[in-house]
Amino acid sequence: MKILEQTHDQFADAFLRRYGKGTHYSTPVYRHVMQTGGTGLDRLPIFSQMPELAGRLQRDLVLDAGPVVNQVEDHGVIKFVTRLADGLEIESVVIPMFRRFTLCVSSQVGCRMGCRFCRTGKMGLMRHLTTAEIVGQVFAARHRLGVDVRNVVFMGMGEPLDNLESVLPAIRVLGDQRGLDIARRHMTVSTAGLIDGIDRLARIDGAPVNLAISLNAPNDAIRSRLMPVNRAMPMADLQAALRRYPLSRKGAIFVEYVLIEGINDQQAHAQALARYLAPLNAKLNLIPYNPAPGSDLKAPSPSTYERFLGWLVAERVFVRRRGEKGGRIMAACGQLGGRECCASGTCL
């Protein structure tokens, strides 16, 4: 019984088939495990007269989140490493934001997108994560680290839309009100721009999740240099996909722009970026590049960052500052992974 890959209804169906018991039994079990992290089912009142069933359930339930084998913290940002069943490792990051904690989750071990500013590009794709391994990161943050995570961003290792077979079910499991209960308005999926994946995500049943685009360039020439995916899916096609993505009543597309010294930091770039965003209901996150070991790219100076920000404001772009969080523990944007882990990715 792999409970971390099942919604309440899926678990109830499996419970009925295996044990012949209905939701009077399965619902308390699901809530107990998902909301408290506990498997001490013998303490549930419904099993007071059925210790044998409680014991059987105890043996059958699989919480395959994997052990947390390393944890580091810097100014409230926590990066933790989970070791998977096959020995590979993934990183997740807890970020304190206002009154809520956000968890940046991974969707793959490695990534095949090859973006130059991200350490994942140097690792390649090792494998997709399962639904349970994705949900398990939230489960671990809540019940092993004791952090009341309420926002989830798919911005960790890997390209989420390259693994929708696991990501879409994970969204459903995370949002189940009888379980982890994370509202879809508090979930964000980030992509390098896989257009077919954007369209599939748009068709998910129920409320849409937030969509973030890692754009990072004002034109195809620069974006193709930074992000190989742009050669197959250029910016005009990406813009069309963003325009047809369904948004909630107060929703917007989040656009991520990693500012790199001497690459995408000129006034003409800001003006071209403003023109590209004009037809979209978009909010731009301006992120200074976080250097990774061995990279030939340079972080922008504070003056470069402020100047570019000012140009965007002058063009009436809705732009938000994004300062570095977790840089000293290699938990900032583009820094996940390395020798201590099998993969890397972007985390905002």
From TrEMBL:
CDD domains: Radical_SAM
UniProt-listed PROSITE patterns: RADICAL_SAM (PS51918)
Cellular localisation: Cytoplasm
GO BP annotation list: rRNA base methylation; tRNA methylation
Domain Radical SAM core: 97-328
Keyword 4Fe-4S: yes
Keywords on record: 4Fe-4S, Cytoplasm, Disulfide bond, Iron, Iron-sulfur, Metal-binding, Methyltransferase, S-adenosyl-L-methionine, Transferase
Keyword 4Fe-4S: yes
GO cellular component, one term: cytoplasm
Any GO MF annotation of the entry: metal ion binding
Pfam families per the UniProt record, alphabetical: Radical_SAM
Primary subcellular site in the record, as a coarse category: cytoplasm
Co-factor requirement: [4Fe-4S] cluster
PANTHER family: 23S RRNA METHYLTRANSFERASE, RADICAL SAM CORE DOMAIN-CONTAINING PROTEIN
Family assignment from sequence similarity: Belongs to the radical SAM superfamily. RlmN family.
Annotated protein name in UniProt: Dual-specificity RNA methyltransferase RlmN
Organism, as annotated: Desulfosarcina ovata subsp. ovata
